[in-house]
Amino acid sequence: MITMKDIIREGHPTLRKVAEEVTLPPTEEDKEVLRSLLEYVVNSQDPEVASKYGLRPGIGLAAPQINVSKKMLAVNVIDEKGTLYSHALFNPKIISHSVEKAYLTSGEGCLSVDRQVPGLVPRYARVTVKGWNINGEEVKLRLRGLPAIVFQHEIDHLNGIMFYDHINEENPFEPIPGALPIER
Ligand SMILES: CC(C)(C)[C@H](NC(=O)Nc1cc(F)cc(F)c1)C(=O)N(CC(=O)NO)CC1CCCC1
Ligand SMILES: [Zn+2]
């Protein structure tokens, strides 16, 4: 299972690489990596397991964060309506998105960043993500709210992008015109 020692931190070059597409159908090894990413986010949200293994609770994790430069991610998050979004995908891609933007009013953090980086992170308010699940089936997800934010954050990791790359350097809290604030 993945623990915090497996999660690389900012400064590690892998976080700035563009990850490789996963050849489908996936090998057993690729399937094991994808499964371990989802296992981490699920385990980390279980207070007993998290405290037993010292896991930082996370709602998403991308393969480059465990030094595997391949296009894989896992998300386990409940949206404001209480709907659980639990997905582990190979080769996820945003195939369409809203013009409207959104942002977490609390700003963002990252399991690979051991510091606070204040500021608003502009994201698309709604995205359609296409990917392949562990069984090799194509998955198409229409997302909004917190799930949309998480998927965009994780897909950024697959392209070597960190959340703070999006923060306005002159004024980190510069209002984002017309953007939808998403409360925590
Ligand atoms: C880095 C950490 C702060 C642990 C972050 N968790 C998080 O944002 N939790 C959260 C947010 C809410 F809006 C409501 C709620 F109920 C819980 C997280 O897991 N990640 C995952 C990560 O680093 N993936 O690479 C960072 C998030 C920032 C925006 C989306 C993912
Ligand atoms: Zn992150």
TrEMBL record:
BP GO annotations: translation
Cofactors (names): Fe(2+)
Co-factor: note: Binds 1 Fe(2+) ion.
Pfam families: Pep_deformylase
GO molecular function terms noted in the UniProt entry: metal ion binding; peptide deformylase activity
Catalyzed reactions: N-terminal N-formyl-L-methionyl-[peptide] + H2O = N-terminal L-methionyl-[peptide] + formate
Keywords in alphabetical order: Hydrolase, Iron, Metal-binding, Protein biosynthesis
Residue numbers binding Fe cation: C110, H153, H157
InterPro entries attached to this UniProt entry: Peptide_deformylase (IPR023635), Peptide_deformylase_sf (IPR036821)
Residue positions of the active site: E154
Top-rank taxon, per record: Bacteria
PANTHER family: PEPTIDE DEFORMYLASE, PEPTIDE DEFORMYLASE 2
Function: Removes the formyl group from the N-terminal Met of newly synthesized proteins. Requires at least a dipeptide for an efficient rate of reaction. N-terminal L-methionine is a prerequisite for activity but the enzyme has broad specificity at other positions.
Stated family: Belongs to the polypeptide deformylase family.
This protein's name: Peptide deformylase
Organism of this sequence: [Bacillus] enclensis
